[in-house]
Design brief:
Length: 299
């Protein structure tokens, strides 16, 4: 067993112990579909023309209100391309302290001069509080799905605001949880110029059923694998979009976003790979940054 696999497995085992008995979807696996959640989401964004942080309120289906937000980290102007980034699970994308869990800071903020583009990061709902508060929300599948759906809808609202003022390229990208958001947005909107999902796919149900991440799923949820697949896998809708605008990156040894499973998401699209697992890949800021820069340069 190589170090990449070992670290993924160790992280999953420790995380599962910390989670205790109340894991993902312990209370309910009932939910509207992604499409229904997206169509039912209501939110609005201000004019995007300057740097700053914008706290919002979204209303979605049966889940009520949530607290998405976005930050314009770098603003060059309407004529420049824009990158909209979506963070990973349980990150704090507005926290720039040294030990903060923040891939946006590590990939973009520390290298902001290398990106000749406007830089925007979206904060998913339920990521403005404590880990305990977040975990409690994840006891219900519909909250998990609404979280991803709201982030995709917020992405679309930002794009609509940008399109009112210019026609420069817009790149939607994200890592892990943010990669699922990226692919979900393409499935139901496809309004970005390019999509860059990092260590994510479209078979989201398999994350909780087939991968090492299943340790984070509740026993209740794992009793209904068919229901999880029906609600969480959205490959059919993703594959109906025929635009050649997806530039994924997968980690070969990833024990969560299993390469052999998730690469099937991207049939007909070029897939870049790195020699890493999920944990080591997430920490390889240089490789992630260079992959995004390559897409930016070509658009």
């Amino acid at each position: 067993m190589n170090k990449h696999i070992l670290l993924d497995n160790l992280t999953a085992n420790i995380g599962a112990l910390i989670s205790g008995r109340k894991k993902f979807f312990a209370e309910s696996i009932d939910s509207l579909s992604f499409e229904e959640l997206i169509r039912s989401t209501e939110l609005s964004v201000p004019v995007v023309n300057s740097e700053g942080t914008f706290e919002l309120e979204a209303t979605t289906g049966n889940t009520g209100t949530s607290d998405p937000a976005f930050r314009v980290e770098k603003w060059l102007g309407d004529d420049y391309p824009t990158i909209i980034y979506h963070h990973g699970n349980n990150e704090r994308p507005f926290d720039y302290r040294k030990r903060a869990k923040n891939s946006f800071m590590n990939i973009f903020v520390k290298a902001r001069d290398q990106f000749e583009a406007n830089l925007i990061v979206v904060r998913a709902p339920f990521h403005n509080g404590t880990l305990k508060e977040y975990q409690k929300k994840m006891w219900r599948l519909e909250n998990f799905m609404a979280m991803i759906s709201v982030s995709a809808t917020l992405n679309e609202s930002i794009i609509a605001a940008l399109r009112k003022k210019g026609n420069a390229a817009i790149i939607t990208c994200g890592i892990s949880l943010g990669g699922w958001v990226t692919n979900l947005h393409r499935s139901y909107y496809n309004s970005s110029t390019a999509y860059v999902p990092l260590m994510a796919g479209t078979f989201l149900g398999e994350l909780f059923i087939k991968s090492k991440y299943r340790k984070f799923a509740s026993e209740h949820a794992l009793q209904y694998p068919d229901s999880l697949r029906q609600l969480l896998n959205y490959h059919d809708d993703f594959s109906k979009v025929t635009t050649k605008n997806v530039y994924p990156l997968l980690a070969i040894y990833d024990q969560y976003i299993k390469y052999d499973v998730q690469k099937q998401s991207y049939e007909g699209h070029p897939v870049e790979t790195i020699e890493a697992g999920h944990v080591t890949g997430s920490l390889n800021n240089e490789a992630l940054k260079n992959h995004i820069l390559k897409v930016l340069i070509n658009h």
